[in-house]
Amino acid sequence: MTLAAKLILIAALILSIVIPFGYYMIGERNKGRYKCALGVNVFFFFGACLVGAIMMFTGQPVEAAQSAAQASSMATGLGYIAAALVTGLSCIGGGIAVASAASAALGAISEDSSVLGKSLIFVGLAEGVCLYGLIISFMILGQL
């Protein structure tokens, strides 16, 4: 990817965030405008990410030695992406699970304080999902 393409992609990513929320901040702030700004932001941000990914994987044909080096670097890069996805998605899932388990546990404890130990176990199990994702990402990084 050339320097001009990189700069254009960076500008598109920044503008995909600034323009929709600037539109929201200038006018009347209500829920409908916020949802519209968020939808436009998501559409253009992931569109720019998709274009960047396509541009990154296209290029000039190279010699066999260079392609072997690039294949190993691509495998390493995909390994880092896999480790990041494992950690990120497991933490998002664990956060959702802890949010629902902790709120239910607080409601149960407020009615009967003898269920504190049982409810903490369920909250701890939900947090375990994050730790399992972190362990798997360390295993992926150990193979790189």
Describe the fold and architecture.
The protein has four helices and no strands. The chain has 144 residues and is mainly alpha-helical. Helix 1 runs antiparallel to helix 2 and helix 3 runs antiparallel to helix 4. The longest helix is centred in the middle third of the chain and has 48 residues. The two termini are 25 Å apart. The mean pLDDT is 82.
Notable characteristics:
mainly alpha, 144 residues, 4 helices, flat
Give the secondary structure arrangement, pairings included.
Blueprint: H1 3-26, H2 31-57, H3 64-111, H4 116-143
What global shape is seen? flat
| Amino-to-carboxy terminus distance | 25 Å
What class, by secondary structure content?
mainly alpha
Number of strands: 0
What's the SSE pattern? HHHH
Mean pLDDT: 82
User: How many helix segments?
Assistant: 4
How would you sum up this structure in a few lines?
The chain has 144 residues and is mostly helical. The chain is 88% helix and 0% strand.
